[in-house]
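Team,

Forwarding the record for the chain on the shared tracking sheet. I've put the sequence and predicted structure together so nobody has to dig through attachments.
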Amino acid sequence: MKTAHAHSPAAPAAATGGVFQTAQVVTIAAGHFIHDIFTSFLAPLLPLIIEKLSLSLTLAGTLSSFMQLPSLINPFLGNLADRVSVRWFVVAAPTITAAAMCLIGMAPSYLVMALLLIIAGFGNAIWHVPAPVMVARAAGQRVGRGMSFFMFGGEMARTVGPLLAVEAVSWWGLEGTYRLIPVGVAASLMLYLRTRSLEAKRNGGPSENGGALREAWRDLARLMLPLTGLTAANAFVAASLTTYLPTLLVAEGASVEAGGTALALLQFAGVLGVLGSGTLSDRLGRRRVLAFLLGSAPLVMLVFLAVDGSAVMVPVLFVLGFVALSANPVILALVQEHNSGHPATANGLFTGISFVARSLIVILIGALGDHLGLRAAFVISALVGFLGLPFVLLLPKQTPVRAES
């Protein structure tokens, strides 16, 4: 028998009677895969963009922040998603994001680049607020497992995306990546055809949800401090790696292709991590899994920075990706379990805060890189990562789901 989470009477499981709808979850995870392939283009192409537009590392860091800027509307998108169906947002997002990201190579100036990234960020926002809620509804009582599937798609995209971006540049040049836009259109068509029965809202009419934003904030307030603290600490580790790893390696003598391959290896390890972390947290508890990840990621990052030679760096980089990029399914499951019937609003509040924090952290790491060098910035990021551990203790305890008998 499965048992519901004791502390979550309004959890999304009610929407599906506890049944894990594999086909629906896999469909949205596949959409996540294709959508996030395009959002992962910036990091591997950043060395070429820096050279083309003559950017400092600080300005290069702001490019990633422009992509995060539309996340400021996430709480309001979440409130809307709890009031009406926003399935069309999920359907449209891959096309919007793909179109914007595939045109960044053609940007003639920093301002045009910023505009394209803001548009891509808007597509990113309208995807990442309602899509996890749809997954939670389809996952029944296995919310952690559902989020692992969902994040598997995202992390797999960030494995394939850097390789695809670098390969596209080798085929068509930096300005030729627009040829990949039809892939995003195809993803939108798939989502349109296969998610008709799964709305991005809970049962109930708009009149019930007038105070959703206030209610979700009230219910999440005791979660927000620890979640924001541990997310920010982990972001120093994850953001430095996923944004600046290729730039660091290229600056130290590697080729652009080698930098993209290293990022792909890191992200592939993250794929394996997210596939298991959410499911494991269903059984062992969210706090235990987060404590392990937040304690080990900065430690392994310091080891990676200390070793020399590809024979040692490659396995260490793999372990680093596994532990540094695996926390999101656990965090998303926590948010969905403490929402008081307004899951999209809760998700919007949290993702809005976390995305803004990440964008500021990326700029800060870039500024540190300009003044101290990227390697020193990476060391500082790893040390800051340890500060996430105390926040885990402030998280509410969770009753693990018992295994099926």
